[in-house]
Amino acid sequence: MELHWPLILFTAFIAWSAGLLATQGVFALKKEAPRAQIPTLVASVVLLAVGGLAVFTHLHHWERIFNGFGNPTSGITQELICVVLMVVVIVLLFAYVRKDAAAVPAWVAVAAIVVALATAAITAHSYMMASRPAWDTILWMVCLVGNACVLGPLTFIAIDCLIDKGEGVKPALFGLAALVGSVVNAVASLAYVFFLSTIGGKFDTVGYYYNPVEPMREMVDPATVANVFSPEYALLVWGGIVLVGAVVPVVAAYLGKKKNTAASWTIWALIGLVAAVVGVICLRVLFFELGASVYIFY
Q: Which residue, 190, 192, 212, is CA-closest to 139?
């Protein structure tokens, strides 16, 4: 299938922004790292805006996007609702943080966590359709939430440490958030990759393409679609998704947690974040590469 880079970037930046907002909620709930709240709020807004601009470049007639908002069950409507809710929570969080970053109400912090993770999940749900076996799995929703879980904490930690200019010991919550988030992302990504290796059977049962000129030609070659571990995808899967995207962030989180100083976290959080972004993009490339349809008219 053709790579749709605007959608690749849209889903990546939405997950990134959601993960950062959820992380802010966690730290606000625990009254930790208050100095990082304003800068990370700005970063979350920027990431959300970049994601929104990316999806608009995918539309040939962006002005017609409003026609779809009349259907509450459409994916684009649900995504819009979640984005609006994220903006509302960001405004609320900003209002309280400006007064006292260490005294954000618990309900605002919890709302940030819930709305952010729901946005990541619903964004993924928009792509789940029976016509494309590679997309029709709840594991894709888990993947986007996993992406948010690794991108958010590492970004928050990196921003906080850069503000402190490498000085001081950091809260133990830094290590917990980074390590748990990176492990969740790694497990979700690996589970989705292995799921993709099983979709060949769904194409075997489709039969032949109804074409008067070539009635016996297969719609799709199942071996090509489902062979995730073939040499063709080796660099993308084993290099980009598994090694860089899954393993490196876990190792970086562990090493940052081990010393738990601003100087150490500045290095390892940035390394883990860059690796996680690479893995997130590679995962989406594979998502579109294997997103072939089993139906003639889809």
A: 192
